[in-house]
Structures are given as structure tokens and as C-alpha cells.
């Protein structure tokens, strides 16, 4: 259902929200004070929980979903036989006609599915060589200690991010406390 259909079928919800939003609050100061105290307690609980919170290691913590930081010096992963086939066939597409990427991928998948066994064996042999290359380069990379250096850099970066976040939270808490003080002055 579309949003217009949803609005038509649930008119009561929107009208009742509008009604309560337009009407002035009918609570007296005592009732209002109870809710402010509850909010203050909940805020204190949240702040104490956040002090003991430790973010996950190996990931950036600034944004919702981010991939772990990738080492630019690490060897490139090996490609499968299908991807080697696609790389060769894609060059032919560029010469003949332009397709959008989705249609091109579908066409390449059909070509791979209908390809002869000899063609597939050729690309599987290439993929095996590439896999051996990747394993060889990874052992060299880990034996030389480049991987541990990068991991140490990532850990330092994460610690800097955590310190920055804590500073930002402290500034936010100070501004929240200042806002609370002005609110209390207005309410009293």
C-alpha cells in the first residue's frame, strides 16, 4: 500500500495527533515536575551506562555502518574463474555496444552458464594461478610484519576516535546542563 492509501485508511491516527498537538497541555506544575524528574533519572542512567560503553574493535565508530579500515598495502584478493571470464568478455562489449551494468552482468552470467567446458577449464586454471599468487603474497606480507604495523595504526586511530567522541559527549553534556538550568529558571 502506498502512503496515500495508508493515510486514507488510518485517518484517525493523524487527526488525533493533530488534535493533541494543537491543544495546550492541561498539566499543573506538580504533574509536570514528576515527568521532569523521571526524565532526569533516565538521563543519569543513560550517562552512567555510556561511561562504561566500549565500542567494537576493528571498526570505525563515527557513523552507523562502516566497513573495517582496509590496508592499502595488503595484496589484492584473487579473482574467481567467472570474474576472469567477465574481464575478457567485457572488453568485447565495450567495442560492440554499451549496456547498463545490470544487463551486462545478466548477459555475462548467461554466457558463462552456456560456455564450453574447455573455456571454463581455461579460466579455472587462471583462477588457480591467481589464488596461488594471492596466498604467496599474503604469506610474504604477514611474515614481513606489514600486517601488524597496519593493525597498530588502526588501533591508534580507534583510540583517537574514542577520545574525540568522549570530548564531544562532554561538550554535549555541558550544553545539555546549561539548557536544563535555563529551563528550570523559566519553570520556577
What does this structure look like?
The chain is mainly alpha-helical and 188 residues long. The chain has a domain at 81-144: DNA Binding (I), subunit A. It has 7 helices and no strands. It has helices at 3-9, 11-22, 29-51, 81-96, 101-114, 117-143, 146-187. Helix 4 packs across helix 5 and helix 4 packs across helix 6. The radius of gyration is 30 Å and the shape is flat. This is High mobility group protein DSP1. It is found in: Nucleus.
Could you say what the CATH topology of the domain at 81-144 is called?
A: DNA Binding (I), subunit A
Helix content: over 70%
Quaternary organisation: single chain
The topology string of helices and strands comes to HHHHHHH
Q: What do the pLDDT scores average to?
A: 77
The biggest sheet, with number of strands, parallel, antiparallel or mixed sense and barrel status, is: none
CATH class of the domain at 81-144: Mainly Alpha
Structural class, by secondary structure, is mainly alpha
Number of strands: 0
The coarse overall form would be flat
Over all CA atoms, what is the radius of gyration?
30 Å
Low-confidence stretches: 183-188
CA-to-CA gap between the ends?
A: 49 Å
Tally of helical segments: 7
Strand content: under 5%
Name of the CATH architecture of the domain at 81-144: Orthogonal Bundle
Write a short abstract of this structure.
The chain has seven helices and no strands. The protein has helices spanning 3-9, 11-22, 29-51, 81-96, 101-114, 117-143, 146-187.
Amino acid at each position: 500500500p502506498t502512503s496515500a492509501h495508508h493515510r486514507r485508511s488510518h485517518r484517525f491516527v493523524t487527526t488525533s495527533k493533530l488534535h493533541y498537538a494543537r491543544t495546550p497541555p492541561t498539566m499543573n506544575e506538580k504533574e509536570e515536575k514528576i515527568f521532569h524528574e523521571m526524565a532526569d533519572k533516565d538521563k543519569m542512567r543513560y550517562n552512567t551506562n555510556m561511561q562504561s560503553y566500549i565500542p567494537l574493535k576493528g571498526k570505525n565508530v563515527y557513523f552507523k555502518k562502516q566497513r573495517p579500515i582496509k590496508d592499502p598495502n595488503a595484496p589484492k584478493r584473487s579473482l574467481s574463474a567467472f570474474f576472469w571470464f567477465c574481464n575478457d568478455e567485457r572488453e568485447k562489449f565495450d567495442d560492440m555496444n554499451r549496456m547498463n551494468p545490470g544487463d551486462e552482468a545478466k548477459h555475462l552470467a548467461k554466457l558463462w552458464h552456456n560456455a564450453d567446458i574447455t573455456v571454463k577449464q581455461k579460466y579455472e586454471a587462471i583462477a588457480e594461478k591467481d589464488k596461488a599468487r594471492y596466498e604467496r603474497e599474503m604469506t610474504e606480507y604477514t611474515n614481513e610484519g606489514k600486517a601488524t604495523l597496519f593493525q597498530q595504526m588502526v588501533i591508534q586511530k580507534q583510540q583517537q576516535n574514542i577520545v574525540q567522541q568522549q570530548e564531544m559527549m562532554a561538550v554535549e553534556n555541558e550544553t545539555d546542563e546549561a539548557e536544563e538550568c535555563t529551563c528550570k529558571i523559566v519553570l520556577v
